Amino acid sequence: MKEVTCICGWTCRGTEDEVVAQVIDHGRAAHGIESTRDEILAIAVEIPMPSQPAGAGD
Amino acid sequence: MAQLEPPVGSTPWSPDFVGQRLELLMVHRAGGEIRVLRPVHADALRVGWAVGRSADEILTELLGRYGLVPRVLHSTSWRHVDDEVVLTYLVVVDGPADPGPHLVDEPVGRAALARGDATAAPASIGIAQVLEHALRHLSWLIADDAAVGAALPDWRPLLEPYVPEPFQAL
Ligand SMILES: [Zn+2]
């Protein structure tokens, strides 16, 4: 999972695709800028998936 | 063409332990009024706390992103938000001539504080209550801490209505 916190305070978390889509939308709507997938992934912070409790899914 | 600005936080976190986040509330004086600068798309700035860096360093750097310089920067409270502990800092800055495109400049209203019981935190705490407590703590500091008092002589009358309170869990 990834996280991006914009300088305007807006923040999003999700999968790589979700974060890219949200940041592109936010950049256009809030700041009038176009951003590429590579630019977004370069600034996104890696956050691990929540870990499964022991025995989950057995 | 305008480019995406670098993010304000770059600290990864883990779901395997309670994470900590730094929260920054920015206030300034305009005449006889206390005003708050908040990010246009959030109620406060929150960033991760990287190992090996002091909170003061991270937050001073963050302020620099908005062209602001701290006069006083102090931790004022902590609370749980979702799965994280949020450590709140209040910073007093000189009022910007222009808050810029990323901040909103608003008057500070008074808020009743959220109170828990003897063994539990309040069920819900709004940012107005966090700021109310932060200003009460600044009111305590300005009388108790010589460095804060010397840095903010012009704030004494503004803080008179605020009951002094120590650093605490909200
Ligand atoms: Zn933004």
What does this structure look like?
The complex is a heterodimer of chains A (58) and B (170). Chain A is an alpha+beta fold. Chain A has one domain. Chain A has a three-stranded antiparallel β-sheet with strand order 2-1-3, with helices on one face. Chain A starts with a strand and ends in a 12-residue tail after the last strand. With 170 residues, chain B is an alpha/beta fold. Chain B has one domain: Nucleoside Triphosphate Pyrophosphohydrolase, CATH 3.90.79. In chain B, strands 1, 2, 3, 4, 5, 6 and 7 form a seven-stranded mixed β-sheet that branches. The radius of gyration of chain B is 16 Å and the shape is globular. The model of chain B has no long low-confidence stretch (mean pLDDT 89). The site of zinc ion has 6 residues of chain A, from helix 1.
Sheet/helix structural class of chain B: alpha/beta
- Number of extended strands of chain A: 3
- In which order are the strands of the major sheet of chain A placed? 2-1-3
Which whole number gives the mean pLDDT of chain A? 84
Distance between the termini of chain A: 24 Å
> Beta-strand level of the residues of chain B, as a percent range?
25-35%
Keywords:
heterodimer; A: 58 residues; alpha+beta; 3-stranded antiparallel beta sheet; 2 helices; 3 strands; globular; disordered C terminus; B: 170 residues; alpha/beta; Nucleoside Triphosphate Pyrophosphohydrolase; 7-stranded mixed beta sheet; binds zinc ion
Can you give me a brief rundown of this structure?
The complex is a heterodimer of chains A (58) and B (170). With 58 residues, chain A is of the alpha+beta class.
List the helices and strands and how they pair.
The complex is a heterodimer of chains A (58) and B (170).
Chain A: E1 2-5, E2 11-14, H1 16-31, H2 37-43, E3 45-46
Antiparallel strand pairs in A: 1-2, 1-3
Chain B: E1 19-30, E2 33-39, E3 45-48, H1 55-65, E4 70-81, E5 84-93, E6 103-107, H2 127-144, H3 146-151, H4 156-159, E7 168-169
Parallel strand pairs in B: 1-5, 4-7
Antiparallel strand pairs in B: 1-2, 1-3, 2-6, 4-5
